[in-house]
Amino acid sequence: MNGARLAISWLTVLPVRGPDQVDRRAAGRAIGWAPVVGVLLGVGAAGVLWGLAAAGASWLLGGFVAVAGLALITRGMHIDGLADTMDGLGSYGPPERAREIMKSGGAGPFGVAALIFVIGIQAASFGALGAAGHWGAVVLAVAVGRVAVVLACRRGIEAAPGAGFGALVAGTQPMVVGVLWGGIGVVAGVFATGDWRGPVGVLAALLVAAVLVRHCVRRFGGLNGDVLGAALEVGVTVAGAVFSLNV
End-to-end alpha-carbon separation of the chain, Å? Predict the structure, then answer.
């Protein structure tokens, strides 16, 4: 259970302490547990959305608060990674310059635009799913973003030069682990929406996230923590958007 505790301590602000010594083996186990953490976070987001709707708030407002809650409980790490990644991709310099921009700590125009679109789409889709009673789809969308992280850390992908967290987790996941989680997500999607939107949404989210990771690895010279955050948020956004079609 050290992997589960480490995953919770890494991916949330919950008062759970991981092992004192963390090497690549321990880090790999923690990443393998990431989708389970996503389920827990998704249940919390769905609960916030339901509670606000029961109190008389609009579904859209509930969606925004649910997304804000996810950002709060994850320390804002993933949306920060998304902004940094988009700013790095928006630069025209060599990989070294792009990595410097990502580490600068500021948010440029590309990062701000990405945050607006991602947060807005997630909030609107969560609100629509809540209004339709598809609570499982909200949970699944959050979890799918964490499956994208497992796939991004698959063996064969190297860490970017100077990466901290990325160097610890890059290449730690056997492909079978990512495929297994993806398959579970596809099956869960059938029950979450009751039709084609569930499995298609899961596959679309993982495909788009994988394409983003592949491009970033080429552009930045490897994987880092910011790219993982971007893949996670993009995965949640695409899954939520597809799940909410025609609801």
Answer: 39
| HSE, side-chain direction, 13 A CA sphere, residue 220 | 34
Q: Exposed/middle/buried for 20, CB within 10 Å: 0-12, 13-18, 19+?
A: exposed
- Report d(CA 28, CA 155) in Å as an integer: 11
Coil, helix or strand for 159?
strand
pLDDT at 92: 82
Q: Which residue has the tokens 């321990």?
A: 26
- 21-59 pLDDT tens trace: 788 999 999 999 999 999 999 999 999 999 999 999 999
Collapsing DSSP states into helix, strand and coil, what is residue 208? Answer: helix
Whether 211 contacts 149, CB under 8 Å: no
Residues 6+ apart with CB under 8 A from 161: 96, 99, 221, 222
What phi and psi, each to the nearest 5 degrees, are found at residue 85?
-65, -45
pTM greater than 0.85 (yes/no) = yes
Using 50, 70 and 90 to split pLDDT, how confident is the model at 93? confident
Radius of gyration of the chain (CA): 17
> What are the distances in angstroms from CA 223 to CA 45, 64, 115?
28, 30, 21
Look at the block and give the residue holding tokens 């597809």: 242
User: How far apart (Å, rounded) are the C-alpha atoms in residues 213 and 216?
Assistant: 5
Residue 196, Cβ neighbours under 10 Å: how many?
12
* Residues 6 or more apart whose Cβ sits within 8 Å of residue 60: 123, 124, 127
**Four-point Cα dihedral 140, 141, 146, 148, nearest 10:** 120
